[in-house]
Queue: 3 jobs
Job 1
Amino acid sequence: MQNGSSRMHISNTWPPKGRARRTILGVAAATAAAGTIMVLSAAGGAGVAGAAPAAVTLCHATDSNVNPYVVVTIAPNSINQLIFGKNGHNTHNGPVWDPTLKGQGIAWGDIIPPFDWGNPTQHYDGKNWDASGMAIFENGCAIPGPTTPATTPVTTPVTTPVSTPVTTPVSTPASHGTSGVTSHTHTPAANSSSAAPIPAGVSAGLHTPIANAGLKAWGVVLMLLGGVAGLLAGLWPTRRRVH
């Protein structure tokens, strides 16, 4: 102005400048970052479900025909040393135990189930993991006893007696010198049967909850809010002082 006084007017230039815009942009960035962290945390938590087992349980071979195996559990941080290291369980070779091996001077080997381990993840196919080895492992590393064949009981069919309907004689009095005629009326017994109502079947579905679904949802919401706030801040008109 001519008199040197200042006045305020709206500037529609882009990008706008000012403390308000910087504050909104900062809030938007923090909101979007929080949402991103929540989404990534949820994704990382879902991956834990498929991680390697905490420990490995195996059947360690002994030199006894009475107790040919004992249960041994290996911690995750000891797998490399106690299973794959020098003299580790993976080196305990030999067939699955049977009562004739000791007399032949043959040592039997450990029974180790397959498992994943290490970082990066490695897969181990197991040792002596056949039908005999699995049966011993599933029995707590004890030799399963002989199975007794099941006997099927013989049932005798039940004979239902058949009842004979009773015939009730009905006599008719004689009239006009006519000898009386006796008529017999047979009334069969009424058999009624009713089928019991069959209850309607209820189908119970299996529902697998989605891991960290709530955390993912809130993360997406925060990311969207941060993006919208950033867009509004970018279009926000600011005031500037013009002399």
Job 2
Amino acid sequence: MKQIRDRERIWVSGLKSFWHNLSHPAPEGRIDVNYLLKWLVLGAIIGVGAGLAAIAFHRCIELVTGWTLGNIAGFKPPTAAGRRGGYHLRNYAPLGHSA
């Protein structure tokens, strides 16, 4: 039980020093590598989280569109030509070209 408390104290003190370092950057003219590294890691975490959220959002839009239009309205919207499934305009030539 004492080991758990010691680990918690170390973790909390590390978290406090992390936030202190974020709010108090290095003096002018000096580059603090630890400060830079912390912001790079934080930026990477935010970027990965935003990317995963965008993927989830896109997938939810596809699911809701397929459910509302497909199950409720009985219409299957066409997909892009590069994607599998759905309706494609492969039999049609571009304007001004013969098939």
Job 3
Amino acid sequence: MITPRRRILAHLLRPTRGGAATVLIVFAALLSLAARAGFVGIPLALIVISWFLKYAYILFDHTVRGFDEPPTLDIRMVNPVDEQRPLAQVAIFGLIYAALNFVEHTLGQKHPIPSRGSGWR
């Protein structure tokens, strides 16, 4: 019988198998190159982070659907207008930040509202 701990471990080890490990290594090398390039490397870093988030969402979709092997990176995954979920998530976080900032300035800091950081003030 497979225990829940082994099931979770199998899902956590999924990104280390097959093409997913190669994708992670290439992304890490590209991010390292972008960091060493300084100001000029910012566009490369943004592009690679976008690709990584898109791949992470697709890997999550494959895991939820029960596929055993991780997906291979294809041209649709690196298309900047194809997958918009990571951009939508950043927009949602930005709206939450703006709403909390508005409430904090409207009510003041004496009221117990969630802070923009982590936890409560």
